[in-house]
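Predict structure. Chain length: 316.
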Amino acid sequence: MAISGAESRYGLPFPLNTDVPDMEAYGRAIAERIAAIELGQRDLFQAGVLISTDWEMTANIVGGTGELGSVANTGGTAWLPDPVLAGSLMRSVAAPAKLSALKPPALPVSTKFMSVGVQLTPSKWGAAPTVSLVSGVEQASEALALTNPAAAVAGKVRIRDVVILNTAGVFSIAAQRDRRPWARGALSQRVLAAGLETSSATGVVVPELTTRIEASGVPLRLTLSGTYLNLEAPSKAVITIAGATTTTFTVRLFTQTTLAIGAALVDGSFVAVPAAGSQLVTVTLFAAVAGKAVELSKGTELLVEELRPSANNGTS
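Prediction complete.
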């Protein structure tokens, strides 16, 4: 016989005065809840238990309405902000299923782009979270929409950004970006498809090397590698990590001394420890002397990777 007692915030049942005594059912319910909490403790004490496919998704869209869904089933385990205890986390679990009919609060007008965030809100320990959307600000290009996502919402965790384009009243997805904090750690690889040249001494941002990562508070390694052509020394490339605070690293690009015209290697690798949260990483190219060109060549790469310890900490 199932008992009708209320539940504590951890989901542990306790009997009410009006309940029909059934100690076997009551004991079984307590054991099941404790087992569920123990699963959460394993997540907490053994880094890497959450698999990279938890809440992984590719969004699809209804062209006439702009409603979002998922191409395939999505769900799994997620640690979300506890709605009762500030600063704590609550373990949520959702059986994989397709998402559908998620209506953005706002959509772009024709020819414009807008980033729409897919987010999770906790309900109670071990239960499925609520999936909802938050809309960003209308932008003139896909690149601007990607680098200006919807603002973070307190008590929710963003799992995906979807850039929506309006073409004469027909909505389509222009780009998507994984925002899950547990998704394989922060990892981004950006490669220049064509060389970028500037004669500006005040700097120009390299758009193709701009990336946003979801930092968890552990160290990040940033590596800029490839080739460059420089006619004056010392030109430079500056890597900037901008989130709650801003950190910069400078890669010096020296004058060619053996070749009048030719390429030399870009070689810069740095370790930073930014605060947990969304971080925008950019590369800005500076000419040493205004009017004297410096060029980052095709194939130059920015690699951002999170330096995590092994998931096996001796407990398995």
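Summary: The CA atoms of residues 112 and 155 lie 29 Å apart.
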